[in-house]
Amino acid sequence: MDALKDIDKPYAEAERIAPLVRRVLARNPSPFTYTGTQTYIVGDGADVAVIDPGPAEDEHIAAILSAVGKARIAAICCTHTHRDHSPAAAPLQALTGAPVVGCAALTLEDDGPRADAAFDPDYRPDRVLQDGETIGGDGWTLEAVATPGHTSNHVCFALPETGAMFTGDHVMGWSTSVVSPPDGDMTDYLASLQKLYEREQDSVYFPAHGPAVEKPRQLVRGMIGHRRQRERQILKQIEAGHGTVAAMVPQMYKGVDNRLWPAAGRSVLAHLLDLERRSLVTRHDDDWSLALTEQ
Ligand SMILES: [Zn+2]
Predict the structure, then answer these.
(1) How many angstroms separate the CA atoms of 54 and 120, rounded?
(2) How far, in Å, from the CA of 70 to the mean position of ligand 1?
(3) How far apart are the first and last CA of the chain?
(4) Residues near 74 by beta carbon (within 8 Å), at least 6 away in sequence
(5) Hey, CA dihedral for 93, 94, 95, 96, is it positive or negative?
(6) Tens digit of pLDDT for each residue in 72-108?
């Protein structure tokens, strides 16, 4: 657990981690958030951006404000609207008047299929950044890089001045991302990995959870390979007669903390839906089988 120790710095204290970048760790550790959500403060001049303000906890918000000091918050930027990322946007805005900029709100059709307990339904952006759009402040620029997959509204933020990329939950060094249908989409997720892989200008990733990633393209290439391997495992499970997600997960995630199995099951389902879209598998209710290919 050395990697964990490395980033297990005191909660609620700003720490300089790179040029233009400071980090404040929220006290919300869990099997899904590692040591907690990392809020990044970008900029050292008259104004700053706050990326992923995190959970709406008083201690965390006070730590962000103390780190920002006399600077103006030019933008509160959220990568996506899971509850460990965006809820502090509203109280931070109320306290400072800063605009909320970045990912779109999820359009939850009433309580429809994409509504999920993990989402922050109160997120209200003042401005949604489309892919490639930028905002800027005193000595910094942030470019939105649309990366749907973990969630449909996920956005990463590039800082071209230094080659840093804030990857939210899209790419993390300590764990693979959960991709949970119907909002999470494995086809989109893989395309978004490929999109980051093709960006040669990014030299370091700062994920919302876990340590910085120093050789990001190498990691992303490995992650794409890992997903392809999972795919092959799933096809083998089906071949071996394990046609349901419930039957596959204990086989595929033997060494993994079984508190994570339900989330793993969501990712397996996401893979199956991707494979179905590619006409490699078919489903009858919860039972999946290999598609008969005509060749
Ligand atoms: Zn998330």
Answers:
(1) 11
(2) 30
(3) 49
(4) 43, 47, 48, 49, 98, 99, 135, 137
(5) positive
(6) 999 999 999 999 999 999 999 999 999 999 999 987 6
CA dist 204 and 72 (Å) reads 26
**Crossing angle of the two packed helices 261-277 and 245-252, in degrees rounded to 10:** 120
Q: Is the pLDDT of residue 2 over 50?
A: no
Question: How far is the C-alpha of 25 from the C-alpha of 12, rounded, in Å?
Answer: 6
Q: What is the pLDDT of residues 162-190, one digit of tens each?
A: 999 999 999 998 888 889 998 999 999 99
Q: Which two tokens stand for residue 216?
A: 């990001």
Ligand 1 centroid distance, CA of 235 (Å): 27
Question: E strand or H helix at 276, and its extent?
Answer: helix 261-277
Residue with tokens 């605009």: 99
Tokens coding 222: 């490995």
* pLDDT surpassing 70 at residue 109: no
Report the separation in Å between the CA atom of 27 and the middle of ligand 1, taken as the mean of its atom positions. Answer: 16
> Model confidence over 57-66: pLDDT tens digits?
999 999 999 9
Q: Which amino acid is at 8?
A: D
Distance 204 CA to ligand 1 centre (A): 20
Question: What is the CA(264)–ligand 1 centre distance, in A?
Answer: 14
C-alpha of residue 294 to centroid of ligand 1, in Å: 39
